[in-house]
From TrEMBL:
<dbReference type="InterPro" id="IPR045865">
    <property type="entry name" value="ACT-like_dom_sf"/>
</dbReference>
<keyword id="KW-0520">NAD</keyword>
<protein>
    <submittedName>
        <fullName>Putative 3-phosphoglycerate dehydrogenase</fullName>
    </submittedName>
</protein>
<dbReference type="InterPro" id="IPR029752">
    <property type="entry name" value="D-isomer_DH_CS1"/>
</dbReference>
<dbReference type="InterPro" id="IPR050857">
    <property type="entry name" value="D-2-hydroxyacid_DH"/>
</dbReference>
<comment type="pathway">
    <text>Amino-acid biosynthesis.</text>
</comment>
<feature type="compositionally biased region" description="Polar residues">
    <location>
        <begin position="39"/>
        <end position="59"/>
    </location>
</feature>
<dbReference type="GO" id="GO:0051287">
    <property type="term" value="F:NAD binding"/>
</dbReference>
<keyword id="KW-0560">Oxidoreductase</keyword>
<dbReference type="Pfam" id="PF00389">
    <property type="entry name" value="2-Hacid_dh"/>
</dbReference>
<feature type="domain" description="D-isomer specific 2-hydroxyacid dehydrogenase catalytic">
    <location>
        <begin position="96"/>
        <end position="411"/>
    </location>
</feature>
<dbReference type="GO" id="GO:0006564">
    <property type="term" value="P:L-serine biosynthetic process"/>
</dbReference>
<dbReference type="InterPro" id="IPR006139">
    <property type="entry name" value="D-isomer_2_OHA_DH_cat_dom"/>
</dbReference>
<dbReference type="Pfam" id="PF02826">
    <property type="entry name" value="2-Hacid_dh_C"/>
</dbReference>
<comment type="similarity">
    <text>Belongs to the D-isomer specific 2-hydroxyacid dehydrogenase family.</text>
</comment>
<keyword id="KW-0028">Amino-acid biosynthesis</keyword>
<feature type="domain" description="D-isomer specific 2-hydroxyacid dehydrogenase NAD-binding">
    <location>
        <begin position="200"/>
        <end position="384"/>
    </location>
</feature>
Length: 504
């Protein structure tokens, strides 16, 4: 189709095998993820390309099923158990763009797969992305790079996006799906880091540590106990009882705090925590209110003047979620009036695109100087998940998702895409090709593809749809080079085609 991807893929032989343990996991998402993490730590397998490095694309196309197949050696496993490393058909090297200083471990994992990886420490603007994105098959970002519909229109080769963070609001997910681009993230890897930060913030606020430390740096000695408290025996109110909120609940109870929480869903509490009937009930009883909700239309300014007024006098507000969930001018008024005793803010509606002096100023949001002047306020530059441990785990998780999708077609874990997977093709499976067919979710699309596949032996097939986009994976056996070319030509010409890839 005119607006679809017209290419399949061919990648030069890599020097590293798939992650260990794929055979035990039988191609499952959990098995592959666990194996990938083991591989990232150990790198224990060896891979021997059957075709010499540097062989041309033309040569690979002429030997689709023979010259491009690669042997993997795993001691103690038969050929029927060992997964075959699949290579995309009919294209050159896979190029990946990594921005915003993502984990070096992820960079290494992707390069070990034989991909060409371009690594940059900063974010790119929309203009720069539109100028250069056409060169890449995959892109990895964090929270500052914005992938808009305009960017996706300029990305004819793009297959997949990896968000090396929790959130995906920086990506136009609908535009990505319509372009046949799967988007993956790491929703849970930094949960512990954020939970620990909240514990530290609560102690620092209750003891006014930030103000005392600032005074000492100016030479002032101000030893006071008035307005300083232990957190033991206090009530922590958690808004959003997901992975972060629930971990925080356990840590807070271990410190002698009582925990209440509010969530839009009825959730089983951990320990002695109790779910409140409403947000207002939580606000009226909590000494500390901490927010852990996603950025949605329903959560925008969910903590405004009315909600802040519902909080106990002398309470503390902590926001390590999203910058839009708190009305900052209302928070400033509540702090200046003395209604709230302090606040910790790690996220903001608009944030600087890069580390720099004099960047968190009034020209950004319009209230920065007023917020900085408030007493007993902890301001941090979006560092909730910024620990070595969290970034390493995020790098492993997202890099594995990119490798799994590029090499094997599995989309389980995608946030905008049908979740489809098949068990692995093994070394014992000869003359097998995997079809990865992204298409419009419209009547007759499956009939059209099955008419094409009907004259071949379909070993396994899985399809699913998500809104306007559908995704089909099928393994076809007993095919030769001419069959592969014929399948590819026919599938890419179907009316519903968005993107077609053949892996073998």
């Amino acid at each position: 189709m005119e607006n679809g991807h017209s290419q399949a893929f061919h990648r030069a032989p890599a020097s590293v095998s798939p992650p260990t343990g794929f055979a035990q996991g039988q191609g499952s998402f959990s098995g592959m993820m666990a194996a990938g993490q083991t591989h990232a730590r150990q790198g224990s397998m060896s891979l021997s390309p059957q075709s010499p490095p540097g062989s041309s694309t033309a040569a690979a196309v002429n030997g689709v099923l023979s010259a491009r197949s690669r042997a993997v050696s795993i001691p103690g496993h038969s050929a029927a158990q060992v997964p075959k490393m699949l290579t995309p058909f009919d294209m050159g090297d896979i190029r990946i763009l990594l921005l915003e200083n993502v984990s070096q471990g992820a960079v290494d994992m992707l390069r070990q797969q034989g991909y060409q990886v371009d690594f940059h420490k900063g974010a790119w603007s929309e203009e720069e992305l539109c100028e250069k994105i056409h060169n890449y098959h995959a892109i990895g970002i964090r929270s500052k790079t914005k992938l808009t519909a305009k960017v996706f229109r300029k990305a004819p080769k793009l297959l997949v996006v990896g968000c090396f963070c929790i959130g995906t609001n920086q990506v136009d997910l609908t535009a990505a799906a319509k372009a046949g681009v799967a988007v993956f993230n790491s929703p849970f890897a930094n949960s512990r880091s954020v939970a620990e930060l909240v514990i530290g913030e609560m102690i620092a606020l209750s003891r006014q540590l930030v103000d005392r430390a600032a005074e000492m740096r100016t030479g002032e000695w101000n030893k006071v106990s008035k307005g300083c408290y232990e957190v033991r025996g206090k009530v922590l109110g958690i808004v959003g009882y997901g992975h972060i909120g629930s971990q925080l609940s356990v840590l807070a109870e271990a410190m002698g705090m009582s925990v209440i929480y509010h969530d839009v869903l009825p959730l089983m509490p951990l320990g002695s925590a109790r779910q409140t009937e409403s947000l207002n009930e939580l606000l009226a009883h909590a000494d500390f209110v901490t927010l852990h909700v996603p950025e949605l239309p329903e959560t925008k300014n969910m903590m405004g003047a009315a909600q802040l007024a519902q909080m106990k006098k002398g309470a503390y507000l902590l926001n390590n979620a999203r910058g839009t969930v708190v009305d900052i001018p209302a928070l400033i008024d509540s702090l200046q009036s003395g209604h709230l005793a302090g606040a910790a803010v790690d996220v903001y509606p608009r944030e600087p695109k890069a580390n720099a002096k004099d960047s968190f100023v009034d020209g950004l949001n319009g209230w920065e100087s007023r917020l900085r002047a408030c007493p007993n306020v902890i301001l941090t530059p979006h560092i909730g998940g910024s620990t070595e441990e969290a970034q390493r785990m995020i790098g492993i998780e997202v890099a594995n998702a990119l490798i799994r999708y590029i090499n094997y077609g599995g989309s389980v874990g995608s946030v905008n895409f049908p979740e489809v997977d098949l068990r692995v093709i093994t070394e014992a499976d000869s003359r097998v090709v995997r079809i990865c067919y992204v298409h419009q979710n419209q009547p007759g699309s499956l009939r059209a593809i099955n008419d094409i596949l009907g004259s071949h032996n379909v070993d396994k097939q899985h399809t699913d749809s998500f809104k306007d986009v559908a995704y089909l994976m099928a393994d076809i056996s007993g095919v030769d080079d001419d069959d592969v070319r014929d399948l590819y030509d026919k599938i890419t010409k179907t009316d519903a085609n968005i993107l077609t890839r053949l892996l073998s």
